[in-house]
Each structure stands twice: as C-alpha cells, then as structure tokens.
Specification:
The chain has 384 residues and is of the alpha/beta class. It is 25% helix and 19% strand. The strands form three sheets. A nine-stranded mixed sheet has the order 10-9-6-5-4-3-1-2-11, sandwiched between helices. A four-stranded parallel sheet has the order 12-13-14-15, with helices on both faces. Strand 13, helix 7 and strand 14 form a beta-alpha-beta unit. Helix 4 packs parallel to helix 9 and helix 6 runs parallel beside helix 7. The radius of gyration is 21 Å and the shape is globular.
C-alpha cells in the first residue's frame, strides 16, 4: 500500500555576507590585495557546478544580506543576519538546511553568536575561503560544496544548530578558532574533535553529538527586531521558485536591533606592562562587562586585579579568559583565597576564549542576567 506522505525533496538556503570567498583580485595569479565581498552569492554559485546534483530544481534559495569584508563585521550586522535567519526558520516554508558564506577573519565570532540566538531546529553551516574567488587556486568553491552537502546530511541525520564547515571538516561553533593567517586549513578547535568529516567522499556526522554543546539556542527566545536590509539585500532564487523580498518583516520584535545594539562588553588584553587604566577607560566608554584576555590560565598582575576588582564592585561583570589559543580557565586558581574568583565575584571563562566569552556575556546582559553565579553556570555548559 503506498504511503500517504508525499516525498519532499530537500531544500537549501544559501546566504551571502561577503568575505574572501566573494573576493576579486587584479589577476588570477594573485591571492593578495583583493576586494573582499565583490561578487554576489549567485555569481559564486556559478563556480560550484556540482551543487545542482545536491538540490533539486526549485529547492535552492539564495539571499545576499550584506557584502562586506568580515573585519568590518559589527553587532548591528549580527542582529540583521539573525533577524533574516529567524524569518526564514519561522516561515511556512523553512529550508531543510542553511549555508552562510562569510569572511574568515570574524567567522568564528559570528558562528558562536548565531549558535546562541538561533533555535537548533535546522543545521546552519558557515563557510568561507582563504583565497579570493578570482584566484586560480580558489578554495571557496570546494568549501561551499562541502558545506552544502554537510548541511543536507545533517538534516537527514536529525542534527540542528550552527557549525563551521571548512577544509572538509565541520567544527563546533563554541570551540572553533582561526589558527593561521595564510593557510587554507585555517580553522581548528580549542577542544574536542570535529563533529563531521568526509569519509570516502561521504559526509559523516558524529552520532550522538558531544554532550557539552548545551548552549545551542540558549538565547533563541531573546527578541531581535529585524533591521532594514541594505538595497543589495534580496532573495535571488526562492525555494518556491518565485522571488521573495528580503525586507519581509519578522513578526517578532524586541529591544535588540541596529538602533538598540547588544550591550557593550570590552576585552582587556594582558601583557607585560599592560596599563590597568584601560579598565576605567573602557568603563567610561559605557562597557557593562569586561573580559580579561589574561596570561596562562587567566592570570594578571596585582594592579590589573585591583582595577578589575574595583570595576566589579561598581557593578560591572568581569570574566577571566586566556590569551592562550587552547586550554581551560578554571575558577579560583590563585594561591591566596582573597585573590580568587569567589572573593572577587569574577567569572571564569572555562573552555571559551576571550572573544567568545565576550559574546556570551553580551547576550547574558541583553537577557537581563546580571548575577555572576548565573552567568558562570552558562559558561560551564560550554565544555568538551
């Protein structure tokens, strides 16, 4: 007896934001001095001929949300991107999977932010390139093709959430970091193993996913008001086969938008002879939280500790992180109890680096979480 459930072919949404994957240099032999974000997402897809075999005709959608080098990324861009993604995920015809093209300089930060504010109902994979699209050795087409097939395989395996796909591997959003300024295998993980990989040219996802990924979608209920799209923002191909304006408004509105951005949180770099007056300066600039990129396991000299302790007494949340690429920052690592986190009411970043600690603290503040113990509990959920 035939099934009453009609077969539904997979649908895929590809969102462009710019970056090197959309870059153009003066000559095909050049991989430097290029204009990042010069090509629209539709033109990038023309360089990925195998994509048609992955997604049936009429089941591919694209949207250019903005076109910028990723070093120009801002919190306002994050909110605009999150607003568009929520609109797609909450629509009547939500795509099965989503791929986002992005510059590599801040890709790890965007991925972590999105992993916290999007519901983990669909796989969302960010990818990019280290060489411009115009280069003879461009790595963007291969990365984009892999990201698409990883995303569709994730949907089939019931995997949701935000990840980074690069160099034939899929990495955790809370652990990924850019480890090299030039190589094409630029991304690595601070902890844990890749969650997906290619095996005999077939995407394979870990089953089950690591248990420490408990913060995915933690702030999915935080209201984000979609900001007005730029004139270049438009859906080029809709899943239904008809054009859909990118400016379609989200029903959900709230305090976070380009006009009311994320709460400001600063990073304090620790190095030999670091000036502790930076703490007071950042506070004078309106920072509601501070993250120390400390030495070793988040250590600091006496003057810096005194400055951070004073700003904590004034109500500013303080997180101790490390400038070291890999490792863990635990609580109360000082020899004297009076210098420990319990005594000073500091937060230990755990497995998060300073950049990701800043993002998590921003969202805690946006959600009205001001108790250091509550914030600490969230940090501790980011673990291998």
């Amino acid at each position: 007896m035939p099934s009453s459930t009609a077969f539904s072919p997979p649908s895929l949404l590809i969102i462009g934001t710019g970056g090197t994957i959309a870059g153009v240099a003066a000559s095909a032999g050049s991989t430097a001095g290029y204009r990042a974000g010069a090509l629209p997402i539709g033109q990038i897809l023309d360089s990925v001929p195998g994509l048609a075999a992955l997604v049936p005709e009429g089941q591919l959608a694209t949207e250019q949300v903005f076109s910028i080098p990723s070093e120009q990324m801002s919190g306002a861009h994050w909110l605009q991107l999150a607003g568009r993604l929520r609109a797609w995920l909450g629509g009547d015809k939500a795509p099965d999977a989503i791929v986002i093209t992005h510059g590599t300089d801040t890709l790890e930060e965007t991925a972590f932010f999105l992993s916290l504010v999007l519901p983990p109902t669909r796989p969302v994979l960010l990818t990019g390139a280290m060489r411009p699209a115009s280069a003879l050795s461009a790595d963007g087409p291969g990365n984009l093709y892999d990201a698409c097939r990883f995303a569709l395989a994730a949907r089939q395996a019931g995997v949701g959430g935000v990840f980074v796909s690069f160099g034939g591997r899929v990495l955790r959003a809370d652990a990924v970091y850019k480890q090299h300024a030039n190589r094409t295998d630029t991304f690595a993980q601070r902890f844990g193993q890749p969650v997906a990989w290619l095996e005999a040219d077939r995407p394979c996802w870990q089953q089950p996913l690591p248990g420490g990924m408990g913060l995915r979608g933690q702030f999915a209920a935080l209201p984000i008001m979609q900001t007005a799209p730029t004139p270049a923002s438009r859906t080029q191909t809709a899943i239904s086969g008809t054009q859909v304006p990118a400016g379609t408004q989200q029903a959900e509105t709230g305090p976070l938008s380009g006009d009311a951005p994320l709460p400001p949180v600063g990073i304090v770099p620790q190095h030999v002879d670091a000036d502790p007056t930076m703490v007071a300066w950042l506070r004078s600039r309106g920072c509601q939280g501070l993250v120390l990129a400390g030495t070793g396991v988040g250590t600091m000299p006496v003057p810096m500790r005194a400055a951070l302790a004073q700003t904590r007494r004034e109500g500013c949340l303080v997180v101790r992180a490390s400038r070291v690429p890999e490792g863990y920052v635990g609580r109360n690592t000082e020899a004297r109890p009076e210098d420990g986190d319990d005594a000073l009411d500091f937060i230990a970043a755990g497995w998060l680096d300073a950049r990701k600690a800043r993002i998590l603290l921003q969202l805690c503040l946006a959600a009205g979480i001001h108790d250091a113990r509550e914030v600490q509990a969230l940090f501790e959920r980011c673990a291998p």
